[in-house]
Amino acid sequence: MPRFWLMKSEPDAYSWDDLVTEGEGTWDGVRNYRARNNLQAMEVGDRAFFYHSNIGKEIVGVVEISAAGLPDPTDDTGKWAAVKVRPVEKLARPVTLAEIKADPALADIELLKLSRLSVAEVRPEEWAYIMKLASSPKETR
Questions:
Q1: Least confident range of 55-64, 85-94, 131-140
Q2: Which of 56, 64, 97, 106 lies 20 to 30 Å (CA to CA) from residue 112?
Protein backbone atom coordinates (compact mmCIF):
# COMPACT_ATOMS: atom_id res chain seq x y z
CA MET A 1 0.00 0.00 0.00
CA PRO A 2 1.49 3.36 -0.95
CA ARG A 3 2.41 5.83 1.75
CA PHE A 4 1.86 9.57 1.75
CA TRP A 5 4.27 12.41 2.37
CA LEU A 6 4.66 16.17 2.29
CA MET A 7 7.77 17.68 0.69
CA LYS A 8 8.64 21.34 1.20
CA SER A 9 10.46 23.53 -1.27
CA GLU A 10 11.04 27.26 -1.38
CA PRO A 11 9.34 28.28 -4.63
CA ASP A 12 12.02 30.82 -5.48
CA ALA A 13 14.59 27.98 -5.35
CA TYR A 14 12.50 25.14 -6.85
CA SER A 15 8.79 25.52 -7.50
CA TRP A 16 5.92 23.33 -8.66
CA ASP A 17 6.23 24.99 -12.08
CA ASP A 18 9.95 24.12 -12.19
CA LEU A 19 9.10 20.45 -11.57
CA VAL A 20 6.36 20.48 -14.21
CA THR A 21 8.79 21.99 -16.72
CA GLU A 22 11.43 19.34 -15.93
CA GLY A 23 8.95 16.45 -15.92
CA GLU A 24 10.95 14.69 -13.20
CA GLY A 25 13.13 16.16 -10.47
CA THR A 26 15.59 14.94 -7.87
CA TRP A 27 14.65 15.75 -4.28
CA ASP A 28 18.03 16.31 -2.69
CA GLY A 29 19.90 18.64 -0.35
CA VAL A 30 17.95 17.55 2.74
CA ARG A 31 20.13 17.82 5.84
CA ASN A 32 17.87 16.71 8.68
CA TYR A 33 18.01 13.14 9.99
CA ARG A 34 14.25 12.69 10.42
CA ALA A 35 13.61 14.06 6.91
CA ARG A 36 16.38 11.79 5.57
CA ASN A 37 14.76 8.79 7.24
CA ASN A 38 11.47 9.73 5.57
CA LEU A 39 13.21 9.94 2.18
CA GLN A 40 14.78 6.53 2.81
CA ALA A 41 11.36 5.07 3.69
CA MET A 42 9.80 6.21 0.41
CA GLU A 43 9.01 3.69 -2.31
CA VAL A 44 8.24 4.07 -5.99
CA GLY A 45 4.54 4.84 -6.31
CA ASP A 46 4.20 6.69 -2.99
CA ARG A 47 2.54 10.10 -3.28
CA ALA A 48 3.58 13.40 -1.74
CA PHE A 49 2.14 16.86 -1.45
CA PHE A 50 4.35 19.55 -2.99
CA TYR A 51 4.40 22.38 -0.44
CA HIS A 52 5.69 25.87 -1.18
CA SER A 53 7.48 27.02 1.97
CA ASN A 54 8.51 30.55 2.96
CA ILE A 55 6.67 32.14 0.01
CA GLY A 56 3.04 31.10 -0.22
CA LYS A 57 3.10 28.51 2.57
CA GLU A 58 0.64 26.24 0.81
CA ILE A 59 0.20 22.80 -0.69
CA VAL A 60 0.05 23.31 -4.44
CA GLY A 61 0.32 19.88 -6.04
CA VAL A 62 0.75 16.13 -5.84
CA VAL A 63 3.89 14.26 -6.90
CA GLU A 64 4.68 10.58 -7.23
CA ILE A 65 7.95 9.00 -6.16
CA SER A 66 9.47 7.75 -9.43
CA ALA A 67 12.83 6.51 -8.07
CA ALA A 68 13.64 5.69 -4.44
CA GLY A 69 16.67 4.77 -2.36
CA LEU A 70 19.07 7.13 -4.12
CA PRO A 71 22.19 8.65 -2.63
CA ASP A 72 22.02 12.43 -2.48
CA PRO A 73 24.12 13.73 -5.40
CA THR A 74 24.91 16.91 -3.42
CA ASP A 75 26.48 14.93 -0.55
CA ASP A 76 30.13 13.89 -0.32
CA THR A 77 29.71 11.92 2.92
CA GLY A 78 27.26 9.27 1.71
CA LYS A 79 24.91 9.72 4.65
CA TRP A 80 22.12 11.69 2.95
CA ALA A 81 19.30 10.38 0.77
CA ALA A 82 17.38 11.51 -2.30
CA VAL A 83 14.42 10.42 -4.41
CA LYS A 84 13.11 11.35 -7.82
CA VAL A 85 9.59 12.76 -8.17
CA ARG A 86 7.19 13.36 -11.05
CA PRO A 87 4.27 15.78 -11.02
CA VAL A 88 0.87 14.07 -10.88
CA GLU A 89 -1.55 16.97 -10.55
CA LYS A 90 -1.78 20.59 -9.58
CA LEU A 91 -4.40 20.98 -6.88
CA ALA A 92 -7.67 22.61 -7.96
CA ARG A 93 -6.82 25.21 -5.34
CA PRO A 94 -3.92 25.49 -2.92
CA VAL A 95 -4.44 24.50 0.71
CA THR A 96 -2.73 27.09 2.89
CA LEU A 97 -0.80 26.60 6.10
CA ALA A 98 -3.23 29.00 7.81
CA GLU A 99 -6.14 26.79 6.73
CA ILE A 100 -4.41 23.66 8.00
CA LYS A 101 -3.60 25.31 11.35
CA ALA A 102 -7.21 26.43 11.77
CA ASP A 103 -8.73 23.02 11.05
CA PRO A 104 -9.14 20.73 14.09
CA ALA A 105 -9.22 17.68 11.80
CA LEU A 106 -5.56 18.37 10.95
CA ALA A 107 -4.33 19.24 14.45
CA ASP A 108 -1.97 16.24 14.59
CA ILE A 109 -0.47 16.49 11.09
CA GLU A 110 3.31 16.29 11.13
CA LEU A 111 3.49 19.56 9.16
CA LEU A 112 2.29 21.32 12.32
CA LYS A 113 3.86 19.06 14.96
CA LEU A 114 7.34 19.23 13.38
CA SER A 115 7.01 22.49 11.47
CA ARG A 116 10.68 22.77 10.47
CA LEU A 117 10.75 19.28 8.94
CA SER A 118 11.20 19.49 5.15
CA VAL A 119 9.97 15.96 4.38
CA ALA A 120 7.08 14.81 6.56
CA GLU A 121 4.80 11.80 6.64
CA VAL A 122 1.06 12.30 6.04
CA ARG A 123 -1.43 9.77 7.38
CA PRO A 124 -3.95 8.37 4.85
CA GLU A 125 -6.89 10.10 6.54
CA GLU A 126 -5.03 13.45 6.49
CA TRP A 127 -4.22 12.94 2.80
CA ALA A 128 -7.86 12.26 1.94
CA TYR A 129 -9.02 15.24 3.97
CA ILE A 130 -6.57 17.67 2.35
CA MET A 131 -7.47 16.37 -1.11
CA LYS A 132 -11.13 17.06 -0.27
CA LEU A 133 -10.25 20.59 0.88
CA ALA A 134 -8.33 21.22 -2.33
CA SER A 135 -11.29 20.21 -4.46
CA SER A 136 -13.85 22.39 -2.67
CA PRO A 137 -14.24 26.17 -2.80
CA LYS A 138 -12.62 27.83 0.19
CA GLU A 139 -15.72 29.84 1.15
CA THR A 140 -17.99 26.81 1.62
CA ARG A 141 -16.11 25.13 4.46
A1: 131-140
A2: 64
pLDDT band at 136 (very low <50, low <70, confident <90, very high): confident
CA dist list (Å): 45 to 4, 10, 48, 106, 133: 10, 24, 10, 24, 23
Domain span including residue 11: 4-140
